[in-house]
Design a protein that fits this description.
Layout (H helix, E strand, L loop, with lengths): L18 H8 L6 H9 L8 H11 L4 H6 L2 H4 L7 H23 L7 H12 L17
Helix pairs in contact: 2-3, 6-7
Length: 142
Amino acid sequence: MSVMPPNLSIKQWEPDDRPREKLKEKGAESLSLAEFLYIIIGSGSPGESAVELMKLILYHQRNGLLGLEHISLQRLTKFKGVGMVKAIKIKAALEISKRLQNQAYLKKKQFTSSALVFEFLVPLLCSLKHEEFWILYLNQSN
């Protein structure tokens, strides 16, 4: 991967470094979180690529992706280059991710260990800003 000077538009990057091309050629695991978010929002602002914009937003959210989940639409739009449409796209992508994580456990019919209960509850509870107490009622077949 080549080193890119700051403030280049993504069109000026080497083709191998562009997030969409990188995803196509090298697979999803080769992309950073900022590059995924770039693909979602599509463009940055004059003088700043969307990847740099997303790096800045993630930097300001100290918990990265978890912090991004808690940021309001209005707060997202305070970043130069992020309007309401881009903010909504970011929040929608986060919600899709959360729902996907929950889908795997909706099909399971049994909790055979405390580890499975933990894996089921983490996506539901990890991003809450407050404490909750949950009870799972199970029958004899778990």
